[in-house]
Amino acid sequence: MDPRVDNMLKITGDGRKAALDMRLAYIHDAETDLQKKTLFDSVNAGRVRILLGSTEKMGAGTNIQKRLVALYHLDAPWRPRDIEQREGRILRQGNQNASVQIHRYVTEGSFDAYMWQCLETKARFINQVMNGSVTVRQAEDLEGGALTYAEIKAIASGNPAVMEKVKVDTEVRKLDQLRASHVNQQHNIRWSIKSLPEHIERGQKYHAALTADIGTRDAHAEDEFTMTIGKREFSGKGAREGCREGPDQHRHVMAW
After folding, report:
1. Residue-wise pLDDT tens digits, 69-121
2. Which residue, 122, 147, 172, sits at the end of a domain?
């Protein structure tokens, strides 16, 4: 099949729409900012009692919470943050109602099960990252996942056993990845342990040499000394100044 005609993204979109209503086509009446403001004012004033819209159209900036009493999720979005955006329309300061209701609608035996499962998996991973309970060093990009043939078959069959098999197979794959990651970490740790004695010995020699140099410096701090640079010899208390600028006005740079 030519991807321009049909692809997994289109199949997913059609499945989501079919789970909501086979007759679905979105039409938003408020197209301009002025129309949106008029509509939002009507909702806050109570002239419009029911408002239907998408997450994008009714997301951030939609301040219609003044008289809202109930929110209805008609489908499942792709991201947990979209759920938060939706519920943020009603769970906001300025709502005059002391309590509100939030409802989620699903169609049994439809694509809704897969969508909510995706949301559950992503939300669990996000929560683990946020509270620091992740036990692995790397995590899979859940947003990059696509429908597998096994998942589609399980959704289409409606057989709980098939769904369970897909779940177990997925868990086995994850455990295999964790085992491979553990083996790699153990290899790196063994390599580090093998090289540590050499690093320790080199560090100890360096420390001993520095200690000896410091001792030599401190033992001769007040002594007279003589230093030869090139064919010139410097001695006495004025040797330091002589090294910087001698009688012939030559300059010398010394590294200590």
Report:
1. 999 988 888 888 888 888 888 888 889 889 999 888 877 777 777 787 788 77
2. 147
Q: Per the domain annotation, does 102 fall within a domain?
A: yes
Between CA 79 and CA 120 the distance in angstroms is: 10
Q: Is 243 helix (H, G, I), strand (E, B) or coil?
A: helix
- Residue 82's nearest CA partner among 46, 107, 53 is 53
Q: Helices in the chain by DSSP H: which ranges?
A: 8-20, 33-45, 80-87, 112-131, 149-157, 160-219, 239-244
Is residue 210 situated within a structural domain? yes
Judge if 33 and 131 occupy the same domain.
yes
Assigned domain for 36 exists = yes
Q: Which residues pair with 73 in a beta bridge?
A: 104
Torsion angles phi and psi, residue 164, rounded to 5: -65, -40
How far is it, in rounded angstroms, from Cα 172 to Cα 135? 17
DSSP for residue 236 = S
Please report how the helices 160-219 and 149-157 are oriented relative to each other, as an axis angle in degrees rounded to 10: 140
Phi and psi, residue 205, nearest 5° = -65, -40
In the chain, the number of structural domains is: 2
Is this model's pTM higher than 0.85 or not? Answer: no
DSSP string, 150-193: HHHHHHHH--HHHHHHHHHHHHHHHHHHHHHHHHHHHHHHHHHH
**Comparing 251 with 46, which gets the higher pLDDT?**
46
For residue 67, give the DSSP letter.
G
The pLDDT value given to residue 170: 77
